[in-house]
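Researcher: Re-running this chain for the archive, since the previous output was lost when a drive failed. Same request as before.
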Amino acid sequence: MNRTETEFTPIDPDLYAKAFQLLDPAPEPVAPAAPSAPSPVSLILAAGPVHQAGPVEKTLTDALAFLDTHGWAKGRLIHPEGARCSIGALRAAAGARNSAYRDAGKLLLDEARRQHGKQWEAIPAWNDAHTGPQVRSVWEAAIRRAHEANI
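Model: Regenerated structure tokens:
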């Protein structure tokens, strides 16, 4: 191991402290400030936990956002310009036919039946038989239900 020898001149510790004090004097004592308004962070922490969407709510919300972005379609799963029907939007949002996809589809169909009658056996048939505002109303209600059920 190589050791580097250095020859430093010893300093006077009192002189060093005095020089440092001249460069960085102690601040003047400050009177205590009046209490300030709570910071936004403390308000957020005091408000309690933020709602964390469950997998079904997230899938439904993401699917509706997909429809808002790419468009809603009737009569086909995917329109050549990118719009999708309700089931196509669910597939795009879920990414796979997983449990969140299946449960979101069941909830959406259940809500479609609540609003438009029990005769609907599948999402595509219901989707194609209704207007955009009617379909959106079902999506929004299904999302509310998923939120309230925390699923």
